[in-house]
Amino acid sequence: MAADLASVAVPPLIGSLCSGYGGLDLGVQVALGGTLAWHAEIDPGAARILARHWPTVPNLGDITAVNWAEVPEVCVLTAGFCQRRLGRRPSSRTG
């Protein structure tokens, strides 16, 4: 029966938070199949790369400004390390 379910299963929709250059997204697509529904990335350089590799996938931008009620639901959610560039404290490490 599991083989029957696998043959009719729809590849999952994937959402990506703090996407970076999309490496995690690629890995998930290879492992699970599926389609990227959207990215959320504010870094201009990373956003250009995402747009080049996934030209039809919308970039939602700043995750704190998104109206999540209007975003398509996904089955798989990936997330990179989000960094807040403003207001970071300097490192206290020495050496």
Overview of the structural elements:
The chain has 95 residues and is an alpha/beta fold. Helices cover 28% and strands 16% of the residues. It has 3 helices and 3 strands, in the order αβαβαβ. A 3-stranded parallel sheet has the order 2-1-3, covered by helices on one side. Helix 2 (23-32) links the parallel strand 1 and strand 2 (35-40). The longest helix is centred in the first third of the chain and has 10 residues, at 23-32. It is globular and about 50 Å long.
Characteristic terms for this protein:
3 helices; single chain; three-stranded parallel β-sheet; 95 residues; alpha/beta
Provide a brief overview of the structure.
The chain is α/β, with parallel strands linked by helices. 28% of the residues lie in helices and 16% in strands. The protein has helices spanning 2-8, 23-32, 44-53; strands spanning 13-17, 35-40, 76-79.
Would you tell me the overall average pLDDT?
Answer: 85
* Alpha plus pi helix count: 3
Strand order of the largest sheet: 2-1-3
Helical residue percent?
Answer: 25-40%
**Low-confidence spans:** none
**Large-scale geometry:** globular
Tell me the major beta sheet: 3 strands, parallel
What structural class results from the helix and strand content?
alpha/beta
The fraction of residues assigned to DSSP E strands is 15-25%
Number of strand elements: 3
- Give the termini separation: 59 Å
The radius of gyration is 16 Å
Order of helices and strands: HEHEHE
What's the assembly state of these chains?
single chain
